[in-house]
Amino acid sequence: MGDCGNGWAVGIKIAVVAALKCELRPLRRKIGNKAIYHALGIGRENVMSELPRFIAQHKPEILILTGFSGGLQPGLESGMPILATALSYEGSRGEISLEDRFFGLAAEALEAAQIPFLKGKILTVEGVVTSPEEKNRLWRDFSALAVEMEGWWAAQAVGTRPLICLKAIVDPAEWELPWGLAAAAQTGWEWALLHPREWPGLLRLGRAAKCATEALTEAVACTVAALAQAPLESEVAR
Predict the structure, then answer these.
(1) Considering the domain boundaries, does residue 94 fall inside one?
(2) Measuring CA to CA, which residue among 56, 126, 135 is closest to residue 92?
(3) Which end of the chain is more exposed for a tag (fewer CB within 10 A), N or C?
(4) What is the rounded distance in angstroms from the CA atom of residue 128 to the CA atom of residue 52?
(5) Does the residue 234 lie in any domain?
(6) What is the CATH number of the domain that holds 175?
(7) pTM of the model
(8) Does residue 37 form part of some domain?
(9) Residue 108 has pLDDT above 90, yes or no
(10) Which residues of 65-103 are buried (b: 16+ CB within 10 A; e: fewer)?
(11) What is the pLDDT of residues 24-33, one digit of tens each?
């Protein structure tokens, strides 16, 4: 991989937000105080309540929404970062384009650093998509590369502020997720110990999440470095 550069400008205030604290922890270690961070919680209600409050308090000039996603396009592997060109929602046929000049800066920086990534649409849904059959249906209906639960709502909540959505695939389109994934996320080892049949799936998912975290950390750090050096323009909200 190449180098994103180590010169950091100080003029632009960048926020990195994600659903979960565990998605932000490696980024804090890598990026440090070059950005501000906030865990929003999962899904529509958390994003629509937390993000406006965070923006009002900290007044970031650009936001990066990051974290984990599931693959929809067949053949995409765990750990592949997706830079969203647009966001769509399962309950709407509309799209929100994210291809502004900041998207261009992020894409150029990732390409220059030779960080593998894909550009394409990301779909927001209301619940975890667990089966290959459902992923295939969403792929056919929306032609999105990946699926997650926050992007569409974040785009609504940021108002006129620029938003970059940069997520990484954990579970490819061909994977079946453990049936108790939501319970496992909430109770951790307690649920897992009571359901040994799910251990192989959870272990595989854990390895995939580690791979996604490593790739996403490099991609987001590179993006922050590029944006930090961008000149301020009237396009950026005050």
Answers:
(1) yes
(2) 126
(3) C
(4) 24
(5) no
(6) 3.40.50.1580
(7) 0.87
(8) yes
(9) yes
(10) bbbbbbbbbeebebbbbbbbbbbbbbeeeebbebeeebb
(11) 999 999 999 9
